[in-house]
Amino acid sequence: MHASPIALTVRRRQLRQGLAAAVAWIGLPLWHTARAQAAATPLPAVSEGPFYPAERWRLARGRDWDADLTQVAGIATAARGEHLALLLRVVDIRGRAVDGHTIEIWQCDAAGQYHHARTEGSAGDRDPGFQGFGAARTAADGSVRLRTIKPVPYPGRTPHIHVKLLAPGGRGEWTSQLFVAGTAANDRDFLWRQLGVDERRALAIALEPAPVPGQQAGLRWQSTHTLVLPG
Ligand SMILES: [Fe+2]
User: Where are the chain's structural domains?
Assistant: First the structure.
């Protein structure tokens, strides 16, 4: 007995749907596994460098050190450079959100100058509109929103953002550096060259053009990146 054209059409449709479901079923766990492996690389330790602004110095300066590094209290002009919205999310090794941890970042300004006790008063172009350092505490979903500038190179280094994770109550501290994915100068950077493939993936932030300026006027780039709390 031959199946009617309508029955054949229905069967073909069922076959296609079944195939799609099978691909989704097989593909989803693979995708999750790959993602979990990539995300499970604990934050690699990278040198703090010589320009971490000590808390005592920060307090003595009396400036604001909030999560927006592109605006400094009392300074009318915004930071020079290309502004970057940086959404960082902290998870543990199992992918669970880590809240109540402090994320600190610091980097040089658009002129390549760090804002630090060692560089204070030194000659050279400095950007008073750039905070140089900022901090925020992770929310319940493990995320913090920071606004800074796209890091620029300075002699001997590829563009990078220093980062420090601090557990509450002094229960832990992890220091590293974030690099910009796809930057050619990374391959010549002595610290980047010491990192393995997974470590590079864990530390390379991908920059995307920010949406058309509106509420976030002047924003040029955005990036979302996950940091895995070691151990
Ligand atoms: Fe640095």
Answer: 1-39, 42-228
Q: What is the pTM of this model?
A: 0.82
Report CA(161)–ligand 1 centroid distance (Å).
7
Phi, psi values for residue 32, rounded to 5°? -65, -40
Å from CA of 204 to ligand 1 middle: 15
Identify the CATH assignment for 42-228 out of 3.30.1330.40, 1.10.150.120, 2.60.130.10, 3.40.50.300: 2.60.130.10
The rounded Å distance from CA 162 to ligand 1 centre is 6
For residue 96, count other CB atoms closer than 10 A to its CB: 11
Backbone angles phi, psi at 228, to 5 degrees: -100, 120
CA of 130 from ligand 1 middle (Å) equals: 15
Residue 18: pLDDT band (50, 70, 90) is very low
- Distance (Å) from CA 109 to ligand 1 centroid: 11
Does residue 41 surpass a pLDDT of 60? Answer: yes
Q: Which helix (H) or strand (E) holds 224?
A: strand 219-228
